[in-house]
Amino acid sequence: MTETVKFIQETNNKIFDLAVKYGYKKKFNQFIDSEDRKKEQWKYHLLANVGIDEDFPLSTILEKEGENFTQREKDLISAYMNKIPACAEIMSCEDSHLKVYNLINEKEYDVIPIKKLFSLDEEAVSQFIKSVIICFEGKYYLNEPLEIVSQRFRALNYAYDVLSEAPDFLFLDNEIKKQQIDAVIMKINDDFRKIFDTDLIYISVNDEDNFSEKFFDYVESGDQNLVETLNNFTVDLSGKDYSEDTEDEVIGVFPTKTGGIYYAFRYDILSKIYFTPDYKDIYDYKECILDYFLEEMSFFPVAAILKLYDDYKDKKKFKKITGEILSEIMTSRMTLIDPNLGLENWDLMKIFKTFKNYDPDSRDISNKTLPYISKSVREFKEIQTKMDDNMSKLFDFEKLF
User: Fold this and answer.
1) For 87-127, how does the pLDDT look when each residue is reduced to its tens digit (9 = 90+)?
2) What's the mean pLDDT when you consider all of the chain?
3) Which one, of 111, 112, 151, lies nearest residue 6 by Cα?
């Protein structure tokens, strides 16, 4: 064991002890009496791949206990605050080092494990380690494992879960990957406008998957025969009556310069709320605002609201309408939303961060775009599709019932 590895282990224990001291009110350990169990809970969060800083009070620890840390310990805490989520495939073992490939950000690393995982021999190769990588004093260290798995599908599934929650991890510490992603998303934007001559279309909810497959086929191949097919998916909403409930629900489809292509359920209703003289004439307007502003659901993306806000000339009026409807929701749904929150006085980003787990400082990438910019996500989806197809062949459910 090197001196640095020993130092990291000792500092980890010190951090864990302080985490219990300053994090005892966290919801996931409020019913845990044992200090040792609380310590394990915090240890997990330190190593977890997904989560903003509030999940582990490193900043609080520095603020409260800074004078009790050496500069070197503070540097290690800073390294943890910039941790690299990893699902690391072991490529080779050399002395006390591992050469690994991180499925999450698609980058190779030469790492030093801070805890002996197993015998570093050929049997370790092709195993996958769920953990975090930190860069400390010019070297990369692989922290204690959350789990070691041997099945590639499970490892890919984990990478998919991480990237679905925080897609900007895909290019964290990988500038080359970021440039590749930027190029793909730029092409998505250009191709969308080239095909449809607009930045927003509507399609039927039943056509979402089929449209997505055909559109990305075009992005990758440039097959001009797909242009007419794609245009046939579009739905004309002129003449639609929004004062009553209708069964012809549609999805708004649009690209953004940073996130790829988004699918927004009932975006036409959301738009009508702001562009009609009296939004109360719109059927189910409160439910639509509730979904878009206060529910954490992928088919009501923040990107849809931001697009609408950018397109809306009177920003003050936009916020006024939003505030009025949110106030109505608070009054009529007191069991769902605390009326004392005063949402009508909040700015949009505060609402998104509080209710939709949205981090304005992170880059949002749509789930539909992820398989076309992440090798791991794409491979996971392909394997999952094959497994589903095999299951369907094995069990003919229509004949069973």
Assistant:
1) 999 999 877 789 999 999 999 999 999 877 655 555 678 89
2) 85
3) 112
360: phi then psi, degrees, rounded to nearest 5: -65, -15
Which string of DSSP letters, residue by residue, matches 318-360? HHHHHHHHHHHHHHH-TTTS-GGG-GGGS-HHHHHHHHS---T
pLDDT, tens digit, 9 for 90 and up, residues 156-178:
999 999 999 889 999 999 999 99
In which band, very low, low, confident or very high, does the pLDDT at 308 lie, cut at 50, 70 and 90? very high
With cut-offs at 50, 70 and 90, classify the pLDDT of residue 143. Answer: confident
Indicate the SS3 state at residue 93.
strand
- Give me the amino acid identity at 101: Y
Whole-angstrom Cα distance, residue 157 to residue 136? 29
Determine how many CB atoms are found less than 10 A away from the CB of residue 270.
23
Could you tell me where the DSSP H helices lie in 49-95? 58-65, 71-81
Walk me through the domains of the chain, giving residue ranges and CATH numbers: 3-80 (no CATH), 85-170 (2.40.50.140), 174-355 (no CATH)
Tally the residues of the chain.
Answer: 401
CA–CA gap between residue 117 and residue 144 (Å, rounded): 8
Indicate the pTM of the whole model. 0.85
Alpha carbons within 13 angstroms on the beta-carbon side of residue 274 total 24
3 state DSSP class of 201: strand
State phi, psi for 308 to the nearest 5 degrees.
-60, -40
Q: For residue 273, give every residue at least 6 positions away whose Cβ sits within 8 Å of its Cβ, in sequence order, or none.
A: 279, 282, 285, 288, 289, 321, 325
- Token pair 């380690």 is found at 129
* Nearest C-alpha neighbor of 289 from the set 318, 320, 325: 325
- Tell me the per-residue pLDDT of 271-289, one tens digit each, with 9 for 90 and over: 999 999 999 999 989 999 9
Q: What's the gap between Cα 34 and its chain centre?
A: 33
Which residues does residue 253 pair with via DSSP β-bridges, in sequence order?
201, 263
Reduced to 3 states (helix: H, G, I; strand: E, B; else coil), residue 133 is strand
> Which residues lie below 8 Å from residue 354, measured CB to CB, with a gap of 6+?
346
Q: Which two tokens stand for residue 221?
A: 């191949």
pLDDT in tens, 218-268: 999 999 999 999 999 999 998 888 888 877 789 999 999 999 999 999 999
